[in-house]
Each structure stands twice: as C-alpha cells, then as structure tokens.
Amino acid sequence: MVNLLEALNLPHIDEDLARVEGALRRAVTAEDPFLTEVAGHLVHAGGKRLRPALVLATALTAVPHVTDDVVQGGVSVELVHLGSLYHDDVMDEAEVRRGVQSVNARWGNLVAILAGDFLLARASEIAAGLGTEVAALLAATIGRLCEGQIGELQTAYNVERTEEAYLQAIAGKTAMLMSTACRVGALVAQLPRPEVEALTSLGRSFGMVFQIVDDILDIVETEEVLGKPSGHDMVEGVYTLPVIRALALATSGGDLRALLGRPLDAPEREKARAIVRASGGVEAAAGVARRFADEAVAHGRGVDGAETLGELGHRLIDSLPVEAS
Ligand code: GRG
Prior knowledge:
74% of the residues lie in helices and 1% in strands. The protein is an all-alpha fold. The protein has a single domain, classed as Orthogonal Bundle (Farnesyl Diphosphate Synthase), CATH 1.10.600.10. The two termini are 20 Å apart.
C-alpha cells in the first residue's frame, strides 16, 4: 500500500508532524494518571496521522510555514478520529487496534467509552480555541460520524443494502472527517472562501476513495498484509461496495446471497471472499473509487498548490492489486 504521507510530498513533513505529535500527547494528558494512560494508549500505539497531514497539506497551499494554530487544527481532527476508534472498537468488540490490544479489550467497555468521550471533549476544547467556525465544524463532524455509523448498523446483514445507502454511510463515517481535516487547514490558514470550499470537497472525494479502497482490501488482501483478518466486514454483516456489486450480478449474486445474511464461520468467509473476487465486483468498486478520485483532482485544480493533494486518491487506487473497470 502506498505511503500517503510521502505521496503528499510536503517539504518539512517530519518536523511538522513531530510538532503535532508533541501537542497531541499534551492534549491527552489528564489530571488522573489512569485516564492519562488510557487516553494515550492509541496515541502511543501509532497510526498514520493522515488526517493531521491533510490539515498541514491544505494549510501549506496558503502559508509558507505551519503555524501553531495549524498544528492545533491537526490535533483536534486526530482526537476526533481517536475518539471514534475507541467507540468503534467497543461496538465491534475489537481485540486489536493499531497493532496493540484495543482499549476495550484491555480495560473494558466502560473505560473505553469514557476515555473516548474525554478525547472528543479535548478535541472540542482545542477547536474552540481556533474560532467559532472550526468549533461548530468539529461538532457537526462528530454528528455526521455518528449518522454514518448508525446507517451502517441499520443495514447490517441486509443483502438488499443499496449502493446509495453504502455511499451515504461512508460519506458520514469516513469522508466527513477527511473533508473536515482539509477544511480546518484551509480555514486556519485563512484561504479565500472559494478555495476553502474546493478543499473541503477535495477532502470529501478523497475520503470516499479511502474508504472504498479500504473495503476492497478487506476482500482482496491477506491477513498478513492487512494486519487483521481479511473478510472481516462480511463476517460482521457489513456489505461493502464490492459485495453489493457482486450480489447484483447474475453469475455470482445467487451463490453469495445464499451465504450472506447471517454470521459466517471461517470456511464460509473464504468462500464468500472467493465469490466476490471472481465476480468482477472488486474491479467495479475500484471504478467507482476512480470516479471519486477524478472528482478530487478537479477540486484540486481550483486551488494553487493543491495539485499533489488532488492526486492522492489516484495514488491510492494505483497501489491496489486490481484494475478498475
Ligand atoms: C463519537 C466521533 C464519534 C463517533 C461515533 C463509532 C463511530 C461513531 C464512528 C466510527 C467511524 C469509523 C471507525 C470509521 C472508520 C474510519 C477509518 C477509515 C479508520 C481507519 O483510518 P486510518 O487507516 O487509521 O487512517 P490510523 O490508525 O492509521 O489512523
């Protein structure tokens, strides 16, 4: 998989992300040492820091150097992301996240939920320091994440899940925060309104690509490459775009429909993955992702210095082990 931070090709990315890292660690420090440990757990575990990098990248289209406000913008979006991961892992009963034991597995659901709330509170506090518009944006983003996740829950194990329902769910659960990251960078760097809007749309389109690619990888990649069991979405009843496309095809749809609609054991999961891989559904999903990547390029053309950022979705699709159809 392509390294997106490298693909952004920012001149001082290591130094700038080191500043984000310092501020992030300070932001998750609580008065209580136990809460500090729990809230810092996934921060210390790593993660790509893609969303703060998007804040930096959009801001750097307007300003020559990353300011402290841009750093704080990056911290606030990463904190929302972290808070959502804490809650998501409770919902999924996940054991592992970012290569370490998940917070819920280590300390239980109650602690994980409260620590997730704490991260969201810190995100809100930091956003408020960046102005009313950023504060309102972060609040609206948290709401959209919840809506996206609820949409996904409502269609769990539903073999009639529509492509529209899928796209709406991922727009909320993933693309909104990528879009917000780009908007925060643009707002804090005080770009003119048309550029703010173009970068917001760019982030949204890129976020759609990011999630579709993630959903494709769950079907096509091995557990070793993913660092988690593949086919997990189907096991959990989350029928993503390659599956929705395979279900719609006459050749694969019937066999797949007979398997899905309920939890799967390991042999059933492998059978379902094989059907989807052979169906052409993966290539069709990559084709949809490519259209969102094209949209991102078009939005990037509206902003001087955003060409590389606009191309990021294409870099991701190029790294897939399948061709788009
Ligand atoms: C309370 C904010 C809040 C949300 C509640 C649980 C929930 C609603 C939403 C979950 C949304 C979710 C987990 C979406 C998936 C997002 C995603 C693509 C995660 C993986 O992102 P990466 O690959 O992860 O950037 P790293 O670990 O590298 O940061």
